[in-house]
Fold this sequence. Notes:
By secondary structure, the chain is mainly α. Helices cover 78% and strands 1% of the residues. It contains 25 helices and two strands. Helix 1 runs antiparallel to helix 8 (185-206), helix 14 runs antiparallel to helix 15 and helix 19 packs antiparallel against helix 24.
Amino acid sequence: MSASAPTPAHPSGLGRLWRRDLAHYPEAGRRYAYLAIVVVTTIVLYYLLYIQFAVATSIITEYHMTFGYFIALSVVGNAIGAFASLLAGLADRWGRANLVVYGLLIAGVVVLLLPHAPDKTTYLVLFAALSFIEGVVLVATPALIRDFSPQVGRATAMGYWTMGPVVGSLVVTTVTSATLDTADWADELRYAGISALVVFVVALFGLRELSPSLRDQVMVSMRDRALIEARARGLDTARQHAGQWRTMLRVDVVGSAFAISVYLLLYYAAVGNFVIYFSATFGYSEQRANALANWYWAANAVALVLAGLLSDRLRVRKPLMLVGGVGSVATTAVFALLATRPETDYYTFAWLFIGIGVFGGLSYAPWMACFTETVEKHNPAATATGLAVWGWILRIVVAVSAAFVPVVVTSVTPIVEHGTEVKAAQEQAGPALAIVGAHPELFAELGRYPAGQVPPELAARAAKEVGVAGLATVQQAQPQLAVLKAHGAEVKKASEEGPGQWRTWWWVCLGGQVVFLPFVFLMSGRWSPRRARRDAEEHQAAIERELAALDG
């Protein structure tokens, strides 16, 4: 240890809104309050981000987007979010709390502006800005969770944090399934933006963070608190921060970050494509598809917390990650097979989503704890840097996967762009289609002539065979018949090919889960709960010896 780190001052007044460092590790009540603010902030941020996808078809219609353009929103947004995550790695030097607080303010304002975007280009720019903020906060919030949660209890805390994107998704589907019958897509965005501003006010006055000298150390349990504070008085934080990026470029950090990113391919598809998938393949409305997704999000949210509690109780991470990974492979395989079975009912999917959600939670909460502990093993002062590497890889994988969905599932574009109007045209032109179907040769012959240039003898024949009223019915349906002629065959072909193409993408998602499994073995931590408890006892004895030496 070298020159003492300065003790943070205690700012007052407006200074408290910027200078947020804590000189001492907080007591349990305050620590839980800080953790709660971070979790709620994360939930709201993902609510802001995911609400776009819950009303995707309405946004596409409103701005006359092609499906490809809407996919570009996700690709561009995630690419920008990836590099924003790298920038957020500087949180090890600058701190985390202000990035979270003021990032939430900007994100809320951006979402309130989105419904007023005059065109799709402006919408793209605003969504890119929102994604930039999300990329920053993606790194800063789990860094705060790590700071305020010792390793004993880390999985539980990370379980609550990982509820952020999951509960954010649950909030989206719950609100939209309850309000879309009386509200439009713009109202849904406004609800999200207002909720963000409310939480911003709470975070503005309530959120604090540890000083660098405290957060740059490994804290195994709350019993380490006295030693952590004693060490902080002599910790050279500048030296701790040297070479952070180089320290994180290791296979157990980079490889594990890639593994969890491809493991979550099905989750990304659930967020971005489930509404479209169930609409195109099973004929669900936006409201019904969002209601179905609630089963996934609710099961996943509960499983994340329970998995964290179990992991901390057993003091191991990797066995739970492995069981969750194998279970995810099995349930995803069943989900993929059901893509080509249109007779599958709503509650079959609901029960399947419960299984997918539970196994996903069993993997992800322990993984987040294990990943931060793997980073700490190399350099505890580089926590945000390690999380920045993870955030960058995660967003790049999301961007690439979003770009490849329409490449693999080519049927999506015609169904999204023309499926609704083709369906409406078929319903409105039903009587006319019946008349045309009863006299195919006659109407094929009539179709050879422009309107008003039909030979008199052919017109007379048509009037005799079909009747004046029948011809009038067909004439009135000409706009709908034109839609069917232009896009009907394309949409029909896409509807027939779509289930098989979606099944292929679900197999890709399953492949990502398989890739995840071997990387579990590279991460830090024990497999045996008994060995883990012995490690904890040895650590506590070492802490007591060091404290005794300091007292002496």
